[in-house]
Design goal:
The protein is of the alpha+beta class and 724 residues long. 52% of the residues lie in helices and 13% in strands. It contains 30 helices and 14 strands.
C-alpha cells in the first residue's frame, strides 16, 4: 500500500503509548514512519491530518536498520519499539522491521533489564516515601512502573519468537485502569498533559469521574503501592533474587513464640524506606494491637501542608523519631533530651500513635488519645508509660502551636502549658514527637526558625517542671556574655539585654544577639539591614528606630517585590531600637536572586523613611503578575483572645495565604490606632497563621464585645479585599 503516490513505499507505525492504545486525553501521538530508503520527505505528509487536528505528534522517519540502531542506542526507544503496531502502509516493510526487532530484543534484553533495574533504584532513592501529590506517570507505582512489567514480559515473549506480548496480569490491569482513569480526569480538568494528582483536585476529579473523592483517592494510593511492589517483584524475578526486604514483620511461621507487642517493636525499629511503598502491611499482630490503623491506610491527608498520605506520614514520623534520637539538626538538642528521657521504644510508640485519631473524628488529638487508651490496654503497658503515651497523643500539637503563635516569655503561657503537660518526662516525650511529626510533614513545616522557637519554649517549660534537669539549660545574661567573649564586650551585652524583653533572650541564640549588637552599632541611630540564609530560607534582619507602622512599611515593601513572609518576629529595645527578623521566600517560586534583593533592600530603606510608594507598587504587582494558584481552600478563622495575655489582646488570623496579607493586616491595625507589641507570623504551605499582641495607644485591651466584633469584621473585610 502506498500513502504518498508514486515512489518509495512506507509504513506508519504506532509506538509507545499509541502502540499500546493507552493514551490519555492530552498524550502525544507517537508514530514511526518506516521508509524503504533515505531521503523520502513525502512520507511526512501522512502526519498532516494529525497536525491539522492540533495533536501533539512525536514522530521519527527511519529505515528498518535506522530503527534497529536507535533501539540499540537508547532504552526508551527500545521499549517504545516493543509496542510497535502497524497503522497503515506497506505491510511487508513492517514485517521486515518485526523480524529485525526480534534479533534486536534477543541481543539487548539483558541490557534492557539492567537499565530498568537501575532506574527503579534511582526512583526509589528519589521517592523513598509515597507522596500525596502523586505522579501518575513517572512516580513510584505510576504508569511507567506498570509499563515496565509489560516491557519485561514483552521482551521475553519476543525473544522466544512470539510477537504478541502477553496481557498484563488481571490485578495489574485493574491497577492500570485506575491510573489511566485518574490521569484522564487530571488532563481534562487541566486541559493539558498534567500528570500530578493533587489533593486540591480530588473533589473535582471525583466529580468528573462520578465517584466518591475519599474512596477514589485511597484506592489510587493503594494501586500505586501494588504497582510499585509488582515491578520490584518482576525485576527481582528477572535477576534471580530479591533486591529489597520488607521493613515490617508480617507474622507467620517462627513468630508463634513472639508476642504482638514484640513484633510491633521490631516493625518500629525497622521503620525506614528500605524498598516497599506500603509503610505497614496488614498482619495479625497489627490487627490485634491496633485495628484502628486500617482507617489510616492509604488515607489522603486533608491538611494542605502534608506531603504524604496519613499512614505514610505516621511511619515516616517513626523513622524521623529514630533519627533525632541520635542526630541533632538545627541545634534542638534531641539526643540529649532522648538520653534524659531514657526509653527510645516509648518515643517510637508515641510517634506511631500521634495521628491515630485521623479519620475517626474531627478533633484527631482527642480521638487519638481515646484510641491510645485502648492500645495501651491491649499492649498491657505500665500505668506510667500508658499515661505518657496518651498525653503525648492528646498534646502532640501543643508545643509547636503555642511556640509559633504565643508569647513564650509570658509566665502565664509557660505556666498554663506546663500544667497541661504535667511533668518533665511527658514534656520530653511530647517535644521529641512534635519534632518528628514536623520533620515528617513537609518542607514548610520544619525550619531552623521554628526549631529555635521550639527549643526556647521547651527549655522554658523544663525550667518550670524540672529546674535542675541537665537539659534545662535556660539562656542567661551570664551565659550569653560567656558565649560572646572576645566578640562583643561584656558591657555592650549587658546594656543590650537590659533593654530587651525576656522572650528575646530565650528565643535568640547568642551568636545572633552578637550580630544584632553589631548592627545597632553600625546603624548609629539610623537603619542597618542584613540579608543571610537560615536553612532553606532567606532571612532579612532590620535594625532601625521604632515608629508606628514600621512592620506595615517593611512587609508591604516585601509584598511589593513578590517576596512572601513565611515567618518572623519583632522586638523593640527600651531605648526605641526595633529589631525585626523576617524569613522570606519568593512568591513566584523561582527564588530571589541578588539583583532583586538589592532592589528590595533599597526599597526597604526608602519605606522606613516613608518615601516608598507601597500602595502604587502593590497595584503594579497585581496588574503585572497573576495571583499565585490557590491549591486548596483554607477556611478563614479570626479569633480575638483576651485570656492568652494579661496585658494585651491577642488577635489570631488563620486563612489561606494571600499576596500582601501581612501588610493589609498591619495597615488595618495602624488605621485602628492599635499598637502591635508582638507579631508572630507562620506560613505552612498555603495556610498562614498570624498572631498579633495588640492594645490601644493608651494601654487598654480590646475587651468590649462591640469593639471586638467591629475589629473582627474589619479583619474579614481586609481579607475579602485581598486577591487569593
Amino acid at each position: 500500500m502506498e500513502l504518498a503516490g508514486e515512489g518509495p513505499t512506507f509504513a506508519v507505525v504506532a509506538v509507545g503509548g499509541y502502540g499500546r492504545s493507552e493514551q490519555s486525553r492530552h498524550s502525544d501521538v507517537d508514530v514511526m514512519i518506516l521508509i524503504a530508503g533515505s531521503g523520502d520527505d513525502r512520507a511526512l505528509r501522512a502526519l498532516y491530518p494529525l497536525w491539522d487536528a492540533n495533536l501533539k505528534v512525536g514522530h521519527s522517519v527511519r529505515t528498518v536498520p535506522q530503527a534497529i540502531a536507535a533501539g540499540q542506542a537508547n532504552v526508551e526507544t527500545l521499549t517504545a519499539l516493543l509496542d510497535a503496531r502497524l497503522v497503515a502502509g506497506e505491510a511487508s516493510l513492517f514485517d521486515q522491521f518485526i523480524k529485525a526487532r526480534t534479533a534486536l530484543v534477543r541481543a539487548q534484553r539483558a541490557s534492557m533489564k539492567q537499565q530498568l533495574a537501575i532506574r527503579r533504584e534511582q526512583l526509589r532513592q528519589r521517592e523513598p516515601w509515597q507522596l500525596l501529590a502523586a505522579d501518575l506517570k513517572n512516580g513510584r507505582g505510576g504508569l511507567r512502573d506498570v509499563q515496565a512489567v509489560h516491557w519485561l514480559d514483552a521482551a521475553d515473549a519476543i525473544a522466544a519468537g512470539d510477537n504478541t506480548p502477553p496481557p498484563l496480569p488481571p490485578a495489574l490491569a485493574e491497577v492500570q485502569e485506575h491510573l489511566l482513569r485518574t490521569r484522564n480526569a487530571v488532563h481534562a480538568l487541566a486541559d493539558r498533559p498534567a500528570d500530578i494528582y493533587r489533593q486540591d483536585q480530588a473533589t473535582a476529579v471525583a466529580a468528573w469521574l462520578g465517584v466518591d473523592a475519599l474512596d477514589w483517592g485511597r484506592r489510587l494510593y493503594t494501586v500505586m503501592r501494588e504497582a510499585d511492589a509488582a515491578v520490584d517483584e518482576r525485576i527481582a524475578a528477572q535477576s534471580g533474587g530479591r533486591r529489597w526486604r520488607l521493613p515490617w514483620p508480617r507474622g507467620g511461621r517462627g513468630d508463634e513464640s513472639r508476642s504482638s507487642l514484640e513484633l510491633l517493636r521490631e516493625a518500629l525499629r525497622g521503620a525506614a524506606p528500605s524498598g516497599a511503598l506500603e509503610p505497614l502491611a496488614e498482619s495479625p499482630w497489627l490487627t490485634e494491637l491496633l485495628p484502628e490503623w486500617e482507617v489510616l491506610r492509604a488515607r489522603p491527608h486533608i491538611a494542605p501542608f502534608h506531603i504524604h498520605p496519613v499512614d505514610v506520614h505516621v511511619l515516616r514520623a517513626v523513622a524521623e523519631a529514630r533519627a533525632i534520637l541520635k542526630e541533632d539538626t538545627f541545634d534542638v538538642g534531641t539526643p540529649t533530651v532522648a538520653r534524659e528521657f531514657g526509653s527510645d521504644e516509648e518515643v517510637l510508640l508515641a510517634a506511631l500513635l500521634h495521628d491515630i485519631g485521623k479519620g475517626h473524628g474531627a478533633d484527631h488529638p482527642e480521638v487519638g488519645a481515646l484510641i491510645a487508651e485502648r492500645f495501651v490496654e491491649r499492649a498491657a503497658l505500665s500505668p506510667e508509660v500508658a499515661r505518657r503515651l496518651v498525653t503525648s497523643v492528646r498534646h502532640h500539637l501543643l508545643l509547636p502551636n503555642v511556640a509559633t503563635r504565643r508569647d513564650i516569655a509570658d509566665p502565664a503561657v509557660i505556666q498554663e502549658t506546663a500544667e497541661r503537660i504535667g511533668d518533665a518526662q511527658t514534656l520530653r516525650l511530647i517535644y521529641l514527637v512534635s519534632i518528628a511529626d514536623a520533620r515528617a510533614s513537609g518542607p514548610n513545616v520544619w525550619s531552623q526558625w521554628k526549631a529555635q522557637l521550639m527549643r526556647a519554649f521547651y527549655v522554658r517549660l523544663l525550667a518550670v517542671l524540672a529546674a535542675d534537669a541537665p537539659d534545662a539549660e535556660l539562656p542567661t545574661v551570664e551565659s550569653t556574655i560567656a558565649a560572646l567573649r572576645g566578640v562583643v564586650s561584656e558591657e555592650a551585652v549587658r546594656a543590650h539585654l537590659g533593654g530587651m524583653g525576656s522572650d528575646y533572650l530565650i528565643s535568640t541564640p547568642a551568636g545572633r544577639i552578637g550580630e544584632h549588637i553589631a548592627m545597632i552599632e553600625e546603624a548609629a541611630g539610623g537603619t542597618a539591614l542584613r540579608l543571610d540564609r537560615l536553612g532553606d530560607l532567606d532571612r532579612l534582619t532590620v535594625v532601625t528606630p521604632d515608629r508606628t507602622g514600621l512592620i506595615q512599611a517593611i512587609t508591604g515593601t516585601l509584598a511589593g517585590h513578590n517576596a512572601s513572609v513565611l515567618g518572623g518576629d519583632a522586638h523593640t529595645r527600651a531605648d526605641g531600637v526595633a529589631i525585626q527578623v523576617w524569613h522570606v521566600s519568593d512568591t513566584l517560586g523561582v527564588g530571589i536572586d541578588q539583583r532583586r534583593w538589592d532592589r528590595i533592600l533599597s526599597a526597604v530603606r526608602l519605606a522606613i523613611a516613608g518615601e516608598f510608594p507601597i500602595e502604587e507598587r502593590l497595584a503594579e504587582i497585581r496588574a503585572t503578575y497573576p495571583p499565585p494558584p490557590r491549591n486548596v481552600d483554607v477556611p478563614t478563622n479570626v479569633v480575638i483572645d483576651n485570656a492568652a495575655s494579661r496585658q494585651f489582646t491577642v488577635l489570631e488570623v488563620s486563612t489561606g495565604d494571600r499576596r500582601g496579607l501581612l501588610y493589609g493586616m498591619t495597615k488595618l491595625l495602624h488605621e485602628q490606632r492599635l499598637d502591635i507589641s508582638l507579631a508572630k507570623v507562620d506560613t505552612i504551605g498555603p495556610e498562614i497563621v498570624d498572631a498579633f499582641y495588640i492594645r490601644h495607644e493608651d494601654g487598654r485591651r480590646i475587651d468590649q464585645p462591640d469593639e471586638m466584633e467591629r475589629l473582627r469584621l474589619a479583619v474579614l473585610r481586609v481579607l475579602d479585599g485581598l486577591e487569593p
